[in-house]
Amino acid sequence: MRADPLLLTAGEWLGVASAVLLVLTVVAFLVRWGIRFRLVGITSFTVLLSLSCLAFAVSYAPRQQVEGAISVPVVFDNGSDLVIAAAPAQMDPEAYGPSVEQVALNLRGSGRGTQQVEVRLRRVEPKGEGSDVPVVLATAIRNLDDGTVILKG
User: Fold this and answer.
1) Is 132 exposed, middle or buried (0-12, 13-18, 19+ CB in 10 A)?
2) I need a surface site. Which of 29, 122, 123, 137 has the fewest CB within 10 A?
3) Where in the chain does DSSP place strands (E)?
4) Nearest Cα to 139, choosing from 96, 109, 107?
């Protein structure tokens, strides 16, 4: 089940509970119940939960899947124009392109200083005694304006 319908329903029910608690809090102040200040806290917290659930339900975007891709971890992101993902040692060469494309498609554009982001899929291979060398397996360029992904090598 996708998260947005569930959170939307939870937000609506929490909103109803907030309204009921608000009425109960007003009655508590009019009758001068001893728990009236606790009801203020409970009511405000319920309102906060309701608004949080509704905001998350509206902003939720599921991750995109590319056929033939393997989920790879992002190991470096400079927050602007470069993202590097690490490939596992036993990764099939046919999965390089789809995997780097999947990482590029799942990037979020907010806060980046540029509209073009280069995504590299790399593996660190041993070069000799005590030294390793990073090898770039595939590269993709993501245009954040229109969402297109261009695969390079």
Assistant:
1) exposed
2) 29
3) 74-77, 82-86, 116-128, 131-143, 149-152
4) 96
Query: Identity (one letter) of the amino acid at 153?
Result: G
> % helix / strand / coil in the chain, to the nearest 5?
45, 25, 30
Kindly report the pTM of this predicted structure. Answer: 0.68
Strands 116-128 and 82-86: parallel
Please tell me whether residues 52 and 78 are part of one structural domain: no
- Confidence class for position 3, pLDDT limits 50, 70, 90: low
Q: Does residue 50 sit in the same domain as residue 115?
A: no
Instruction: Answer yes or no: are the C-beta atoms of 149 and 101 closer than 8 Å.
Output: yes
Query: How many CB atoms are closer than 10 A to CB 99?
Result: 26
Q: Which domain, by its residues, includes 33?
A: 3-59
pLDDT in tens, 37-86: 999 999 999 999 999 999 988 887 788 899 999 999 999 999 888 999 99
**Calpha distance 23→146 (Å, rounded):** 48
In sequence order, the β-bridge partners of residue 75 are none
Residues 83 and 53 occupy one common structural domain: no
